[in-house]
């Protein structure tokens, strides 16, 4: 069994010069799989990072955590219920240069009503993709665990 621990330290100075900070540590034990990938996302290209529904070689069919870290801005997409069992949803997000993007589960709501993203059916992510919208290739680290 494996484990993972992520420590976050945040420090800032407010507009009046007062210094602030907080720290937190997330730990998950008894993991059965941890997968680290170092990827290159070509300029002006879209790349699938994870899709166990179409890739039989995908080592992890589900995850309990995911961390993405890029050396430049990327657009991300999470596809929930791409098979259309309850109602496909696609959500986008922005990966910012040097700022880790983390998911603590592979769940999200699909088939929700207008104006209420929590009223649908809890389903799992079925695909994660990123897009490099500019003209420079980017390096991306992905860490997934289950």
From TrEMBL:
Designated name of the protein: Uncharacterized protein
User: Which species expresses this protein natively?
Assistant: marine sediment metagenome
């Amino acid at each position: 069994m494996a484990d993972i621990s992520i420590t976050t330290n945040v420090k800032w100075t407010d507009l009046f010069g007062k210094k602030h900070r907080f720290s937190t540590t997330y730990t998950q034990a008894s993991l059965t799989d941890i997968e680290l990938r170092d990827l290159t996302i070509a300029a002006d290209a879209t790349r699938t990072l994870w899709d166990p529904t179409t890739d039989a070689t995908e080592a992890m069919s589900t995850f309990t955590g995911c961390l993405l870290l890029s050396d430049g801005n990327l657009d991300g997409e999470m596809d929930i219920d791409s098979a259309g069992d309850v109602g496909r949803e696609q959500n986008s997000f922005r990966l910012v240069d040097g700022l880790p993007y983390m998911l603590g589960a592979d769940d999200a709501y699909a088939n929700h009503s207008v104006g209420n993203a929590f009223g649908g059916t809890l389903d799992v992510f079925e695909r994660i993709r990123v897009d490099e919208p500019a003209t420079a290739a980017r390096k991306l680290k992905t860490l997934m665990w289950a």
